[in-house]
Amino acid sequence: MRKQLLIPILAMFMSLTQRAQENTWSIEVIDPISFNHPFALSNEGTLGLRVNYRFVQVGKVTFGLSADGSRFATTLRPDQEGEYQEYFFKPRLFAEVPLTRNGNLSFTGGVGWAWLYSRGKPTFFDENGRLQGGDAWADGLNLDAGLIYDVTPNLRIQSSFDQPFLSGEAVDGNSGFLKLRGGFRF
C-alpha cells in the first residue's frame, strides 16, 4: 500500500518543484498608505494581501493577472466615535519589465478595477451632505505603477503608487495609495 502511494506523491512533488522553478505565482503582504482620501486622518489597522499569476512573457515583458484586497480601520474625523472600516478589492492586468541586466530591478504597471466597501458607525452627514457611516459601495478604474526588487530569486520587495478613480455612495473622486509590499514567488 505504501509503495502504491509513494509514486503518486513523488510525481506530485516533482510537478510542484518544476512549477516553482518557473516562478509564475507570487503572494505579497501589503502595507497601504492612503492620501487624497477622506479617511487620511488615521491609517490604523491597515493590511492587505495580493496574489499574482504571470501567464506569458513577450520578449522581456512579462504579463500577468493579480487580485489584491486591503482593509482600513480608521478614524474619519477627530469628533467621530467608533471605527470606520473600508475594504478594497482590486483585480488587474499587469506587466513587468526588467530595468537591469540581472533582472533584479523591474518596473511594473497595471490597469484594473477597484471596488470599495465602506462600513462605519455611527452614521452621520459630512460637510458635503453625503451620508457617512453605515454601509456603502464605490467602484472605478484603477491604475498603478511601481518598482520591484528581487532580493533573492524567490523573495521580493516592491513599492507602488495605486490610483483608483472611485465613484459611488462611499466616495466620489480620486484616492491615492502608496503601497509597500514584501512577497514570495513560487
From TrEMBL:
Protein name, as recorded: Outer membrane beta-barrel protein
Q: Lineage of the source organism?
A: Bacteria, Pseudomonadati, Bacteroidota, Flavobacteriia, Flavobacteriales
- Which keywords does this chain's UniProt record carry? Signal
Task: Give the residue range of the signal peptide.
Answer: 1-20
SUPFAM superfamilies, per the entry: OMPA-like
Which InterPro entries does the record match to this protein?
A: OMP/PagP_B-barrel
Naturally occurring in which organism (per UniProt): Muriicola jejuensis
